Amino acid sequence: MGVASGTLSRRKALSLLGAALVGGALTSMPGVAWAAEGGNSECVRCCKETYGPGRERGQCISAGARGECPVTCDGNGGGECSGDYEPCGDVCCEFNTRECVTIGGRPHCVCEVGKTECGGPTDRCCYSDEVCVNGECTCAPEYTLCGNQATDEFECCREGQFCCPNSPPGISNCCDTPCCNGVCCPAEFNQTCVNGQCVCEEGYATCRFTSEPYDISECCAAPNFCCGGECCIAEFGQICREFGCETPFCNTCFEQGLICQCTFGEGCRCVS
User: Fold this and answer.
1) 224 Cβ contact partners less than 8 Å away, ≥ 6 residues apart
2) What is the span of the domain harbouring residue 31?
3) Residue 207 within any structural domain of the chain
4) pTM given for the model
5) What share of the chain is helix, strand, coil (3-state, %, to 5)?
6) pLDDT of residue 133
C-alpha cells in the first residue's frame, strides 16, 4: 500500500531492523535472530553444522550463549523468530513486505507481489513508489521524500502533495491540502485549518480526543453524534455509554457467540 494514496502511514507502524553478513562476519541482532528451543547445546551443534571452523562459527556460538542463536537445523525444534519476523525454512523472514513460499520443494523468503527486493530475508522490500539504492529503499525520482530516511520512517509524496511531517498516527504525512502547523487536516475527514489548528468544517460536530502529544478531532455529521471523543453512528442504532459508543443490537450477537457486522446502507447483522 503506497502512502502516496493518502492512506495510513505504513512507516509509522514499522520499525524494522536489518541483519546482514558484513565483511564475512555474522551479525547477531536482538529480535531478529533465532531463539533455538533446544537450548545452547543445540545451538552449538547447529553452528558447527552450518559453518566450518573460523570466525563465523565462533560468533554463531557466542550469539547462542546470549540466547540469540542465529541458525537452526534439523532436531533443534525448528527455532522461533521474534519482532517483525517469522520462520521460513532456516531463516527469519520479515513479514510486513515478504512472504514464505515453497519453490522447488524448499521454503523461500520472497517479496510480496508489487514489491521489489532490496537486501536479504530480514530486510523489507520496497513499495511501488520506492526504489532500492545501496541496499535501502528510498522514494522513486518522481516522488518527494517526507520524513526520516535514516530511521525508515518516511513517506513518498506525489507531485502536488504537501509534506506535513507532524501528522499524528493514522493521518498520512502526504497531504492534498496545505499543512496546518506541520499537520495534515485531511479533507476526506471533513477537517480544515483555522488559526493553525485542524477543526471540523461547518455543519460538523467536533468530537475531540486528547492523547499527548496529539489532539485529534473526529467530525460528526447529523444525525450522528459525539460521545466520549468518538462519533456514534445513528444508522447502527448506537447509543452513548460511559466508555463511548455502544451498539445494543451487537450484544445479542455476542450472547449467541456470533460476530456483529455493521455495514453502511445495510445496518447490522449477526454472522458466524
Assistant:
1) 205, 231, 232, 233, 234
2) 21-111
3) no
4) 0.54
5) 15, 35, 50
6) 92
